[in-house]
Write a structure and sequence with these properties.
Blueprint lengths: L39 E2 L25 E2 L7 E8 L2 E6 L14 E6 L8 E4 L14 E5 L3 E5 L4 E5 L3 E2 L3 E2 L23 E7 L2 E6 L3 E6 L2 E2 L3 E2 L22 E6 L2 E6 L2 E5 L4 E4 L15 E7 L2 E6 L2 E6 L8 E2 L6 E8 L2 E6 L3 E5 L4 E6 L13 E6 L2 E5 L4 E6 L9
């Protein structure tokens, strides 16, 4: 297998050889799930039967036809799958006009391999008073199942995909500067966060105000702070981690995490977080508002997508120079379950596939969002045989294939 670090980023017309998968059954039905200790069973609202997306989409090798779910009172902002029979999508609390006009409850929908559940509320909307709906919730799920949701308001909730604990603040919120630069397309003035849990005993959270939060052995460690609130887009070293835009974190094991905030990178070594050399030169201006996503399939391999570029770190070496991956598009997400398989997704609903030596694509598999624009596209691959991609409207498709690693000795 060619080394990932070689970055043979051949942007070529799709030559995928995986066989096409059958279109999954897409009827909504409510699943009954036993509540996990310490969580609250939330109320669900009925959902209607979804329909095939009313957009002509060609059948793509290995991918199902694009289907749609019903948006849960707002856009889907994050997706996490731990198998081909367990995925959870988080959303709600956002509108097509961006997070500055949030309303409604935070909800999740669970996928059992054939159908989506009715929405489960994890963050109830207040009956009266100021709107406190979640902003850009992001979710990660691991074995158990245990799922953790964090959002831009600094709250965290845990559950099994259907039953959720009451959201609690991770820490006192960091005041935002007056009239900050847009911290993400379509989301003026909002805080963003990311979460990764390699096991139920370790979770890492990072936000775009230079803070990290770590759950270890069931308890949250004191947060660590990097940078100062000098304003979004500030270029001084002390404000380098107070950045606009989406952030990312990936933990392949409990003793290794890598987080990306703006143009800065943080590392977790099992005991503490520290800042490391940036993978970008000064030509990537901080505070650009461009989303970033990171995937680390192993402790010695990480890939970051930013704009239409990708950078990679292999072993103990430095990050590679920026390489063009998706010309003219905006890469929203990347998922790498193994070092020989990655899928990156852009804002048009197209995917690029890494097979261990080259990238193929882009391949258009779902339509771009039209109702909840500016939220982005999510992709989650629990292994090299199954992936799901979803846009903010709830349009989704699944990938089924033999998996490149299946042929390895």
């Amino acid at each position: 297998m060619a080394a990932f670090s070689a970055l043979a980023l051949v942007i070529m017309a799709c030559g995928c050889s995986a066989s096409s998968s059958a279109t999954p059954t897409a009827d909504h039905r409510t699943r009954t799930t036993t509540g996990v200790p310490g969580t609250t069973t939330t109320t669900s609202t009925p959902s209607a039967t979804p329909t095939t997306v009313p957009v002509s989409m060609p059948e793509a090798p290995g991918w199902s036809l694009a289907l749609t779910t019903l948006p849960p009172g707002g856009g889907f902002t994050s997706l996490s799958c731990i198998s081909d029979t367990f995925c959870v999508a988080a959303g709600g609390g956002t509108t097509g006009n961006g997070a500055a006009l949030v309303s409604g409850s935070g909800v999740t929908l669970s996928w059992d391999g054939a159908a989506w559940s009715s929405p489960s509320v994890y963050y109830p909307a207040p009956a009266t008073g100021p709107i406190t709906a979640p902003v850009l919730p992001t979710i990660t799920c691991t074995s158990g199942p245990l799922c953790v949701i964090v959002d831009g308001s600094g709250h965290v909730s845990t559950g099994d995909g259907t039953n959720w604990s009451n959201p609690v603040p991770l820490d006192a919120p960091v005041p935002l500067p007056a009239d900050p630069a847009d911290p993400g397309v379509g989301h003026p003035g909002s805080r963003t966060s990311a979460v990764s849990c390699p096991t139920p005993s370790l979770c890492a959270v990072v936000d775009n105000t230079g803070h990290t939060f770590t759950l270890r052995g069931g308890s949250w460690l004191p947060p660590q702070s990097f940078g100062a609130a000098g304003g979004f887009g500030a270029s001084a070293p002390e404000t380098a981690l107070y950045q606009s835009g989406r952030v990312g974190v990936s933990c392949p094991v409990p003793t290794s995490c890598t987080a990306v905030v703006g143009s800065s990178v943080l590392r977790w070594n099992g005991a503490t977080w520290s800042a490391e050399a940036t993978p970008w030169t000064t030509s990537l201006a901080p505070g650009t508002g461009v989303p970033v996503s990171i995937a680390c399939p192993t402790v010695d391999l990480c890939a970051i997508v930013n704009g239409d570029d990708i950078v990679v770190r292999h072993g103990g070496g430095p990050w590679t120079p920026r390489q063009l991956l998706d010309p003219g598009r905006q890469l929203d997400a990347i998922s790498c379950p193994t070092r020989a398989f990655c899928i990156a997704a852009d804002d048009s609903g197209s995917v690029m596939l890494w097979n261990g030596s080259t990238w193929t694509g882009p391949l258009h598999v779902i339509p771009a969002a039209t109702q909840y624009t500016g939220v982005g596209v999510s992709v989650s691959c629990p292994d090299d045989r199954f992936c799901m991609i979803m846009n903010a409207d709830g349009d989704y498709a699944t990938y089924t294939g033999p998996g490149p690693d299946s042929a390895a000795p």
